[in-house]
Write a structure and sequence with these properties.
The structure holds two protein chains of two kinds. Chain A is of the alpha/beta class. Chain A has three domains: about 90 residues, Beta-grasp domain (Ubiquitin-like (UB roll)); about 100 residues, Elongation Factor Tu (Ef-tu), domain 3 (Beta Barrel), CATH 2.40.30.10; about 120 residues, 3-Layer(aba) Sandwich (Rossmann fold). Helix content of chain A is about 15%, strand content about 30%. Chain A contains six helices and 19 strands. Chain A has a six-stranded antiparallel beta sheet. In chain A, a hairpin with a 6-residue loop joins β10 and β11. Chain A is elongated. By secondary structure, chain B is an alpha+beta fold. Chain B has a domain of about 240 residues: Naphthalene 1,2-dioxygenase Alpha Subunit, Chain A, domain 1 (Alpha-Beta Complex), CATH 3.90.380.10. Chain B has a seven-stranded antiparallel beta sheet with strand order 10-20-19-18-17-13-12. In chain B, a hairpin with a 7-residue loop joins β12 and β13. In chain B, α2 crosses α4. Chain B is globular and about 75 Å long. The N and C termini of chain B lie far apart (about 60 Å). The chains are: A alpha/beta, B alpha+beta. Chains A and B meet through β8 and α5 of A and α6 of B.
Chain lengths: ~350, ~450
């Protein structure tokens, strides 16, 4: 049986044990090789590849019409769906075997809005010709204009809002990004973004209750995920969000959270403060509003915040009977968010 | 991306609107093309005879309907192959499928699956793809379609009653109506529904908000039905109590709000001293209105005793809607039916659905330009009586099942496409129905040039 190797532009190589007699595409897909395809009938050119110059692993299947022209064949181009393997050899695909990895783009500053006593929401728009796909919950590195260094921030906007991106940024007394957003930042500044990174993302489950635990700007990716859920078709599961901040003034964008709560009938938002609790606030950190004894064991939990909060939350959730697979978390290091 | 390239703003940058404040009811403001994942009326039953095919557009989604063996089926009206509307030239080889008239892609009416291709029955695509289907219910002579996003799961499709007004008498205790009998529902036994539908040139929200706007009674003063009945209307009706509107949003029930008109919770205004205008001998018809998602109006006790008027403002595009006016009455006997039908033809249609409500069509169109570019939602200056509209906007923001995003190919997305302009020049307004091909041998063009010799 011929052994055909498939080489992708990212360097990935897959081996296919290819019986003759069947279209190579079918065999390759059965062996989980990510070859693009659509019509599977020799027409649409999606499964185009180039053969090895040394020999020909594939030969056109007899009697199959394809949209390849003589000059294509002369260059060794072949269609996997209309060819069969005839000998060992290599095939080359001019795309990556993986979904697009991190990319670097530029974006214009649209606004910087104070959403708490020590935090802003930065809104940017990708520049003409630039694009950056992401999953709700992921983050990018932002190069601070003029500073050269980068800081990591999770998007708080939903992917559907692209080319707009929004970030919740904690503003410290001093720090690269903090100094920028407090001082020099202005409309139409150009910032560089690199990403996306991270695998903190919604599982897509709509049948199980969800619990979101956010410490400070750990709210950012959770906001993105909540909006992704809001835009999803069909029934929504019960959703609980507990946000913990230092004081009432430090609570992040509570008016937006209240709006989100009114737009999502299954969402309940609890605001926790370490000190100075006012009307409706719970005293304590983000765990203080959660009745762990009452958690359904099939709850999907999402945690983002400082290390200590995440560790404490995981302990409590495991003790409440959640299985580790249903506990999703994103750690961020305090110094890295300045 | 290269450092050598100048970095530019996107052509359609969002910076222009940074002054816009996010509203408490922002999802409603975002719903230019309407809400999806809701039940909407599509056709009257008599508009789709056995075997017939019709094409419509709701919330930017093109839908083809076919009646086969009595049952109505609805599929996305956009062939997966090249995007052709199946309804433009219906082709059906049997009772189970509909075929695209261009290349013969043939779809199963029940499942939407690509069952075969007329001239290519062994193509590998067959069985592996298909069109979105839309659940259909037919009640009281109306065909309703659940207009959904492609990924909306079958098991989550709610019953039709969840997108319908409250029923009486089962809600009579919760919403007492001592001044008139229980309003009939389209879902009741023995009801007859008679009505009309037509296209209005305004955004669906503008139309919907007009439907239950209590302060616009002034505009109806000169209507024939009002004068012929010697009704004397107040100048306006203003909210006089904090419970002038009651929201109902039970988990399994319809989501809407009831306005307690003709109770002491709303005050009729009989005099304006500044203008020296006074209303004597108030003699208004007693009615009340409720509005339900996705934009359904119920007017109880209107236009006459025992009759209720239903209205839908079905989004077609962001600047057209299909306006449905349906009168419902219990007609247990054939004689009742005949009487209702006679009265519909001679009184209700000309004087109520046309005369009275035509004046609303004028008002909606008059508002359209102000709201057309979206800034109207920021610029409008609201007053006390707009409480109804704002409550509705909040309710709709919370309970809609999805905001429509006009898909590529939606008719009317490009306002100045050459086809649209030609249709208009031929006297065909942008509308609800597909433009059918009636003569394949004749593509009428005024631009034909010919060399004879």
């Amino acid at each position: 049986m011929p052994l055909v190797t498939c080489h992708f532009s990212n360097g990935a190589v897959y081996e296919v044990n290819a019986d003759s007699g069947r279209p190579f595409l079918e065999l390759a897909l059965e062996q989980n090789v990510p070859i693009r395809n659509q019509c599977r009938s020799g027409t649409c050119l999606s499964c185009l590849c180039r053969g090895d110059t040394a020999g020909h692993a594939l030969a056109p299947q007899a009697g199959r019409a394809t949209s390849l022209m003589p000059m294509d064949r002369a260059e060794g181009k072949m269609l996997c769906c209309a060819s069969e393997a005839v000998s060992d050899g290599a095939l080359y695909f001019d795309y990556s075997s993986e979904e697009a990895g991190p990319t670097e783009v530029q974006a214009f500053v649209d606004s910087i809005e104070w959403i708490a006593s020590d935090a802003v929401k930065l809104t940017v728009e990708l520049a003409e010709g630039d694009w950056l796909d992401f999953r709700a919950g992921q983050y990018v590195e932002i190069s601070v204009p003029g500073g050269g260094a980068s800081r990591s921030y999770s998007m708080c906007s939903a992917p559907s809002e692209l080319p707009k991106l929004e970030f919740m940024i904690r503003v410290l007394k001093s720090g690269l990004m903090s100094d920028y957003v407090r001082g020099a930042a202005k409309l139409d500044d150009v910032v560089r973004l690199r990403g996306p990174y991270g695998d903190f993302a919604w599982s897509g489950s709509r049948r199980h209750p969800h619990l979101f635990i956010a410490g400070g700007t750990g709210l950012s990716p959770i906001c993105s995920i909540l909006q992704e859920i809001r835009e999803t078709s069909g029934h929504k599961p019960p959703l609980k969000l507990s946000l913990g901040c230092a004081s009432p003034e430090a609570l992040l964008d509570p008016s937006f959270l209240r709006r989100l709560e009114t737009w999502m009938p299954t969402l309940e938002v609890n605001l926790c403060v370490e000190s100075g609790a006012q009307n409706g606030h719970v005293n304590g950190n983000a765990l203080a509003s959660i009745d762990f004894d009452a958690l359904a064991p099939d709850t999907q939990a999402y945690i983002c915040g400082p290390e200590g909060l995440i560790n404490a939350a995981i302990d409590r959730l495991l003790a409440a009977g959640l299985i580790p697979e249903n506990i999703h978390y994103e750690r961020f290091v305090a110094s890295g968010i300045a | 991306m290269s450092d050598n390239q100048p970095v530019r703003r996107r052509a359609k940058s969002g910076t222009a609107n940074t002054d816009a404040v996010q509203k408490e009811y922002q999802p409603y403001v975002d719903a230019d093309w309407g809400f999806v994942n809701h039940w909407y009326p599509a056709l009257f039953s008599n508009e789709l005879a056995e075997g017939e095919v019709e094409g419509i557009q709701i919330a930017g989604i093109q839908i083809v309907l076919r009646r086969a063996n009595g049952k109505v089926y609805a599929l996305k009206d956009q062939c997966i192959h090249r995007g052709v509307r199946l309804s433009a030239k219906p082709m059906c080889f049997n009772k189970e499928t509909i075929s695209c008239w261009y290349h013969g892609f043939t779809f199963n009416l029940e499942s939407g699956n690509l069952d075969t291709i007329v001239g290519n029955p062994d193509d590998p695509l067959i069985g592996n793809t298909g069109l979105t289907t839309y659940p259909v219910e037919e009640v009281a002579g109306l065909i309703f379609v659940f207009v959904r996003a492609d990924d909306y799961p079958d098991e989550d499709v709610p019953p039709l009653a969840q997108d319908f007004p409250l029923r009486f008498p089962e809600n009579s205790e919760r919403f007492p109506h001592p001044l008139w009998p229980a309003a009939p529902s389209l879902l009741d036994d023995d009801v007859v529904a008679l009505g009309i539908h037509r296209t209005g040139e305004a955004n669906w929200r503008i139309a919907c908000e007009n439907g239950f706007d209590n302060a616009h009674i002034l505009v109806h003063k000169d209507n024939t039905i009002v004068q012929a009945n010697n009704w004397v209307l107040p100048l306006g009706i203003r909210p006089a109590s904090e419970d002038c509107i009651t929201v109902f949003d039970d988990a399994e029930g319809p989501k809407g709000m009831m306005q307690w008109l003709f109770t002491d919770r709303w005050e009729p205004i009989l005099e304006n001293k500044a203008l020296n205008v006074k209303v004597e001998g108030l003699n208004s018809r007693l009615y009340r209105t409720s509005v339900i998602l996705p934009g359904v109006l119920l007017v109880e006790n209107w236009p006459e005793e025992g009759v209720a008027q239903y209205e839908w403002y079905v989004p077609i595009t962001d600047d057209t809607y299909e306006y449905w006016e349906v009168l419902v009455k219990h007609c247990p006997s054939d004689e009742d039916k005949e009487q209702f039908s006679y009265r519909f033809d001679t009184v209700y249609q000309p004087l109520a659905l046309r005369g009275f409500n035509d004046c609303d069509l004028h008002a909606r169109e008059a508002m359209q330009d102000f709201y057309a570019d979206g800034t109207g939602w920021q610029r409008e200056q609201l007053v006390e009586t707009d409480i109804s509209a704002i409550m509705w906007r909040k309710l709709a923001s919370r309970h809609n099942r999805g905001i429509a995003a006009p898909p590529p190919g939606a008719q009317g997305r490009d306002k100045a496409s050459s086809i649209r302009l030609r249709n208009v020049s031929e006297g065909k307004s942008p509308g609800y129905f597909v433009e059918k091909i009636d003569d394949l041998n004749n593509f009428n063009r005024t631009s034909v040039r010919q060399r004879n010799k």
